[in-house]
Amino acid sequence: MDRIDAMRAFVRTVDDGGLAAAARRLGRSPAAVTRAIAFLEEEVGARLLRRTTRSSGPTEAGERFLDSCRRILADFDEATALAAGERSVPRGVLTVTGPLVFGRRHVRPVLDAFLDLHPTVQGRLLLLDRVVNLIDEGIDAAIRIGQLPDSSLIATRIGHIRRVLCASPAFLAAHPPIRHPEDLAALPVIHFGQIHDGRGWSFATPAGPITVPVQPRLTVNGAEAAIESAIDGHGVTAVLSYQIADALREGRLTLLLEGFEPPPLPVHLIYPEARLVAAKVRAFVDFAVLRLRALPVLA
Q1: What does the chain look like in DSSP terms, one character per residue?
Q2: Which residues make up the CATH 1.10.10.10 domain(s) of the chain?
Q3: Domain 3-84 belongs to what topology?
Q4: Boundaries of each HTH lysR-type domain copy (predicted)?
Q5: Please, which of 3, 6, 89, 151 could form a disulfide with 36 given CB 3.0 to 4.6 Å?
Q6: Judging by beta carbons within 10 Å of its beta carbon (0-12, 13-18, 19+), is residue 31 exposed, middle or buried?
Q7: CATH 3.40.190.10 segments of the chain
Q8: pLDDT (tens digit per residue) in 249-299
Q9: Is the pLDDT score of 52 beyond 70?
Q10: What Å distances lie between residue 186 and 178, 222, 225, 259, CA to CA?
Q11: Using an 8 Å Cβ cutoff, are 163 and 238 in contact?
Q12: pLDDT digits over 128-153, tens only?
């Protein structure tokens, strides 16, 4: 049996969480995938998978072997691409994902410019305010805002984004001055659930971080709804700095408590290591990193 083919079956089974799912993804029967993994286990002399009726996970030996398999497969794919001449010319479908507002305003123009330079590449942009599994969903690259968990993905930092507080000039004129985070307790607030949790809003003070309980007048799951409500004068809201750049510039919103902002959130361009073998991904990463790092909203 082909070792490379067997390694692909093993890695796919781990990534998809089961033999049946791996078989569907690979276009093979579950029995064929089972035989491939059994062949590997015989080759290495150790059990690689813990099999249950619902899922399959790697054993301790399987975890160690998994990393080696990923490296071997990436090297093999790169060598194959080089031999076929595909690495020198970007081609095929490039799938990129990012947060809804940031993606529409900043990732989409970068992807458009990249596609203009590479007519043999077709773009696919998924704008989602949720974290997606790049490998499971066949995504080549993603913009992530916030701290990254440990993973096998490669991350290139492109900047950071502030978590800010804002309200409309009309709202501020009708309410007492807001000089300290604790002043928010007496004010109507518009809560955007993806920025803060339900326990309150976090701030930095000279004495250390604090969390101020708030009673939302309105809770929304989209930044644009929170921002529009704040512009209309219905309360104070906490969002990310890039989301209100236009409203600040046009004077429709005013920043509050800038001296109490929590630490900014890092922004990364991430991609699976194996994807970088493809010319389209390598070219896009090089192109996008330079342009995204130049954005004022990430400075």
Answers
A1: --HHHHHHHHHHHHHHTSHHHHHHHHTS-HHHHHHHHHHHHHHHTS--EEE-SS-EEE-HHHHHHHHHHHHHHHHHHHHHHHHHT-SSS--EEEEEEE-HHHIIIIIHHHHHHHHHH-TTEEEEEEE-SS---TTTTT-SEEEEESPPPS-SEEEEEEEEE-EEEEE-HHHHHTS----SGGGGGGS-EEEETTTS-TT-EEEEETTEEEEE---EEEEESSHHHHHHHHHTTS-EEEEEGGGGHHHHHTTS-EEE-GGGPPPPEEEEEEEEGGGGGSHHHHHHHHHHHHHHHT-GGG-
A2: 3-84
A3: Arc Repressor Mutant, subunit A (1.10.10)
A4: 1-59
A5: 6
A6: exposed
A7: 92-160+265-298, 163-260
A8: 999 999 999 999 999 999 999 998 766 668 889 899 999 999 999 999 897
A9: no
A10: 10, 24, 22, 20
A11: yes
A12: 888 888 877 778 999 999 988 767 78
Q: Which CATH fold topology does 163-260 show?
A: D-Maltodextrin-Binding Protein; domain 2 (3.40.190)
Nearest to 272 by CA among 261, 283, 282: 282
| pTM of the predicted structure, to 2 decimals | 0.67
Please state at what angle helix 279-293 crosses helix 108-117, rounded to 10 degrees. 130
Specify the residue for token string 């020198």: 88
